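Attaching the record inline, Q. Sequence:
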Amino acid sequence: MSATPPGPFELRVYFRGDVLGSPDTAVRLAATLVEAGGELAPRELLGDLDAVEPLTPAAVRARFGAGPGPDALHMQGPGGVEAELHGYGPGLDPGSMLLFRVPFARLEGEGGGERVVSLARALCGAFPPAYGWGHSADDVRLGDDPHRTKPWAEKRVYAAYWLTILGAPLVRTLKRAHVEATPAHRVEVLPDGAALIVTTPSPAELLGPAAREAQSRALAHLAPERDAAKVLAELTARSEQLRSVAPA
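Structure, as predicted:
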């Protein structure tokens, strides 16, 4: 298999509140992306008819105007970086979702994984998460996690990704000690009780045999009804399915 998975790497975070509910929280989200994203950060805000302007607090605030705020903000950065922030409205859990995509080639080499984890940590520190992941977008589409298309699906663990994000309520349901004992490269519990679970060091290798074994072990631990051997067979088959797909 190619050292670089096909398609983009996807960081998707479902937030427990509506980040687009006010210009202040929208500006804070954009600032967190820019500051924590570093060289991976989006730099431009997209508008109607392909209009592009620098991603600044003033530009984000202008999208709110005098009426209701936007349903979504679309951003982009150099080297194929794309980001979308979608608001679902008040009183919903999750109330919003950030979708951040970057070519895998930007994550190869030393430090690529840590840049993603640092960004996820900053986003989840600024806005409490409900659920989320960092993984191959193509592989996510081959999986069966209903959160991909149904944000309000039952909050439980359906899959283990290169990076799995569990909100504080889900960590409480699973029991913090059990989450901390997940067999993984790293398990980090954030100050609000949410958790980041990193299965292997490098996201660029997440479709390889060792990474698939780590993902299957983590899922079987977090969702004991899932058999690790069966999960591994399913993940290995998905890796084979993606093998012939040329990197984007």
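The mean pLDDT is 93. Helices lie at 23-37, 57-62, 112-126, 137-142, 168-174, 176-180, 209-222, 228-243.

More tomorrow.
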